[in-house]
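Lab notebook: predicted structure, single chain.

Context: the supervisor wants predicted structures on file for every construct in the current expression panel, including those that have not yet been purified. This is the next one on the list. No modifications to the sequence; it matches the entry in the shared construct table.
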Amino acid sequence: MKCPYCGYQESRVVDSRPSEDNGKIRRRRECLKCGKRFTTYEIIESVPVMVIKKDRTREVFSREKLLKGLLSACYKRPVSLEELENIVNEVESSIQNSLDREIESRRIGELAMSMLKDIDEIAYVRFASVYRQFKDINTFRDELNKLLEEH
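Prediction complete. Output recorded below exactly as produced.
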């Protein structure tokens, strides 16, 4: 860290604590050349993940959009908001942990569906019907048959 007084490149951290909003870390530093102290703030840089949609357009990943879709699929189903938020957290964590800064919407949908299937099969079929854009009753029946074969 460059000293703001003498420009020397080396300093030591004297004190470190989270800021009031917990989004930054406040550090008191001391220059190793002139001995003067100064304060720096450290923040985590978040790089947005871009979602490649079916029509090849791109938009920033939105937790809220995924949660809204899950909420719609779970309407009047015995699935708690906490369970849905856990799904969103796991999907987001999986996306952030990948080294890719772009992900296809298909992959996000598949991740969410695989977790939703374990929680509530009716909600899973509802989500799949919108996500996979079931064209007719046969497509719907095929998805139900896959579920029945797994049991």
